[in-house]
Amino acid sequence: PCASEIANLRQVWHWAASHQQYEELSKASDTLFWLYESRSNCREGVPLYGEAVEILQQDMKKLIPAEKEPCQLALGQALSYKGYFLFRQGKHPQAKNALQSSLHMLESMAQGDELEAQMALSNTQIFLGTVTSIMGDFSNGDLLLQQGLAAKKKLNDPWGAAFCLRQIGLSAQYKGDYDKAKQALEES
Description:
The chain has 188 residues and is mainly α. It has nine helices and no strands.
């Protein structure tokens, strides 16, 4: 998309966040993430998702329990994508904090048959596993990445599984396990 179309997408995103359009935000989260990620545009991704996080956190305080679930899902997704883009900017501690908040929020939602929550949780596991490994905690990072991969396979998400295998391969490379890195990257 050209710059004017991206500006329109940002305006629609802001409008949806400001007008409690939680389901629309959830549906648009993944698409906008991949758009920004494919353009390596983490600089714009952080404020885009950060603004939604701020608005949704305020909404969560005002909603009655029966109304919170759609907002909670949208907030969990926004925290996850904001965390990933913070990671891409090299802001690892801030990324980890956002991703841990997302993980805690989405874990409670993904217990049932909520497909969107399970998909969002698996994304967060992959992102948090990546950041945790980059920060030197390979054991916990690998655990999160393996959980994310298992979820992606269970959800029949080959694109997500391939992305996760890439992250597993990179993590293995960082710790010098080149055989595992090669295997994961080839499978990806």
